[in-house]
Amino acid sequence: MAALPENTVSTPPATPERPMIEVILDCLDDAKAEEVVAVDITGKSSLADHMVVASGRSQRHVGAVADQMVTALRDAGYGKPRIEGLPHCDWVLVDAGDVIVHIFRPEVREFYNIEKMWQADFAADAH
Q1: Handedness of CA 93, 51, 55, 16 (dihedral sign)
Q2: What are the mean pLDDT values of the chain's consecutive 10-residue runs (127 residues total)?
Q3: Cα–Cα distance, 103 to 99 (Å, whole number)
Q4: Closest alpha carbon to 21 in 36, 34, 7
């Protein structure tokens, strides 16, 4: 007997049910990240819609938070984000596309203070 043809209709990839920013903020809360600040940068930058800054207690905690975020984003249907800084874990950047997440050790975060720069009201915003 001849084999029946397999179903050739492909199903489209599942669309994520929750907004990416929610997935990320919930993940940071679950991972016990500290001092989480979410900044809406829509209109301030074409890089992303949101920037999130958080702290980990140690290099190990920073790396664990980043790893947990990759898993949470993948499980929610967002694929795998790009990651920088994992070998040293002083400052890990997770680029998920619409949301960029910075996870710092407290001393490094205090030194760079990047959330202050993005939260500032720019003179162009006043016009």
Answers
A1: negative
A2: 54 71 98 96 88 97 97 95 95 96 96 83 51
A3: 13
A4: 36
